[in-house]
Amino acid sequence: MARHDDGVVTVGRSRIGTFFANTTGIVFGLVMIFPVYWVLNTAFKPDSEVRSFTPTFFPNDFTLDNFRSALGEELFIPSMINGLIITAMAVAAALVVGFLAALAIARFSFYGRKAIILIILAVQLVPFLALLIPLFLMLQGANLTNSLVGVALVYLVLLLPYTVWTLRGFISGIPRELDEAAMIDGCTRAQVFWRIILPLTGPGLVATSVYGFIQAWNEFIIINTLNNPQKQNLMAWLLYNQTERGTAWGPLMAGAIITSIPVVVFFLIIQRNIATGLTAGAVKG
Amino acid sequence: MRHGKYPFIIGFLAVPVALYAIFVVGAYLQMFRLSLTDWSGYGTFKDIGFDNFVKLWNDEVIWTALRHNGFLLLVMPIVTIAIALLFAFLLNVGGGSKGGMTRGVWGSKIYRVVFFFPQLLALALVAVIFQRVYGPDKSGMINGLLPDSWEPWLFLADEKWALTCILIVLIWQAVGFYVVLFSAGMGSIGQEIYEAAALDGASRITLFFKITLPLLWGNIQVAWIYLGIAAFDAFALVNIMTVNQGGPNNSTQVLSMQIYLNAFKYSQAGYASAIGVVLFFLALSFAWLTLRVTRSDSVEA
């Protein structure tokens, strides 16, 4: 805390309080980080060391075997590809459908607008698990079980409320005067949407697509119920595989790391803007 | 801006409305319909009126599950919001002040990233990891750290503490997100407000209760709703972590787990749908109550 001791007058703050605050921060930080550290620690340990009753805080024999054995599993790569296809379909569709719906809600007043907003919000409030049975029946009836498209459709419905709500916040933040000025200059309404509102909603589109990616990529209950073992995503495969063979912690943790990589990469890219994305939905308009 | 807006409105809303009509409204209608039948999940079924609901009323496991949901609903949001507020505050204005400028505790930039870590791990992976943290013998993470002379703690295998173990994971997982959310909210509170208060000699505690808390109220309300829903669900953790999916001896049983078990394990899809109907109305009442309290802030459009 040397930086505090450079002769600057501190106002209204006791040094003991500062020390206490810093300590709390460190302790809490450790609690938050410890399980994550432990995943890494386990993934790089050989099996004998993982099973040992005396915990080691760093792998004594650093090894990549766990990653090799996870990647070598028969269904690992196919499940990863399934997950990517489903996620891409669901997120892309949610962006297009969600952006247009948000436009309609943010830029027009019409009969039933409030009802639509309420329904969008209400759906988010009910645990989706209650719908698992009827959804299974519907998709079965439409021949969409054991299919990537069926799962993507369900994910699209799950992602829409957040997408519409967040984008609506962003669009409401764009002054209507911009639309009007552009229309006076001869833009059609469609051109206003395409050339003015869409680019200005950019950060919102990024935020919602990252959120959508994480949700769809990490989902496992719906896909596990709808699809057979050949058509799972990586998360469902990982969990299913765990119960199947008893727990091989090393490869499981290695698999967990691989599963988390896309999410971490996304996070690092948009880290700075995350807070903006989170709060934008709350903007009134 | 009046003429020709309806083609846009209809065109823009047709797809989402259709999706909702089929996958949400349609699905709920079907759930209501099935809740009045004795359907097993395969083959044919017949209508049995409200028999499922009578059975529900007399089902002790359901009442136990309901109590557990209630416990999570009461404790989880309060504790999560309290911890998140405290840390968001520490990160933003809790550190020393320098030349009248308030700032976060030492290392607050790192914490901002660290607190988001749990968000990067899927809930399912968090469940798997904490299974290991809670391991009931010396290979468990906590028990491994305890002195050798101690009896190992049972955690999830202990009827008394199993639900609390789940609660802790729920909080651990959620807290980071709300630290970031509240931090963003605090960031939008003008520095000069804090500076003025600090110059007047306000302590950290005064700053927190007189400035931060009132100005963040909107964010807190949103957090409350989301956490409440997470507490209603809790399925992923209970499903993956607990002994016998809701055990030991139903001590971690929750409604969503009951739906799943009845529908896909016990071949009682009709009964599971009836539980679904109950969950639906409970969740909606919770949301309605919360929205009523916060009406002017969040539903205005």
TrEMBL record, chain A:
GO annotation terms (biological process): transmembrane transport
PROSITE patterns: ABC_TM1
Compartments it resides in: Cell membrane
A single cellular component GO annotation: plasma membrane
Top-level taxon of the source organism: Bacteria
Domain ABC transmembrane type-1 positions: 80-270
Bilayer-spanning residue ranges: 20-40, 75-103, 115-137, 149-171, 192-214, 248-270
Entry keyword set: Cell membrane, Membrane, Transmembrane, Transmembrane helix, Transport
Gene3D superfamilies named in the record: MetI-like
Protein's UniProt keywords contain Protease: no
Membrane-related topology note: Multi-pass membrane protein
Major subcellular site: membrane
Keyword Hydrolase: no
Family in the record: Belongs to the binding-protein-dependent transport system permease family.
Listed name of the protein: N,N'-diacetylchitobiose transport system permease protein
Organism: Actinoplanes philippinensis
Automatic annotation (TrEMBL), chain B:
One matching Pfam family: BPD_transp_1
Top-rank lineage group of the source organism: Bacteria
Membrane topology: Multi-pass membrane protein
Name the record gives this protein: N-acetylglucosamine transport system permease protein
Localization: Cell membrane
Gene Ontology CC, one term: plasma membrane
Segments passing through the bilayer: 7-29, 71-93, 113-134, 161-184, 223-243, 269-291
Family: Belongs to the binding-protein-dependent transport system permease family.
Any single GO BP term: transmembrane transport
Lineage: Bacteria, Bacillati, Actinomycetota, Actinomycetes, Micromonosporales
Residue stretches making up the ABC transmembrane type-1 domain: 66-290
InterPro entries registered for this protein in UniProt: ABC_transporter_permease, MetI-like, MetI-like_sf
Keywords linked to the UniProt accession: Cell membrane, Membrane, Transmembrane, Transmembrane helix, Transport
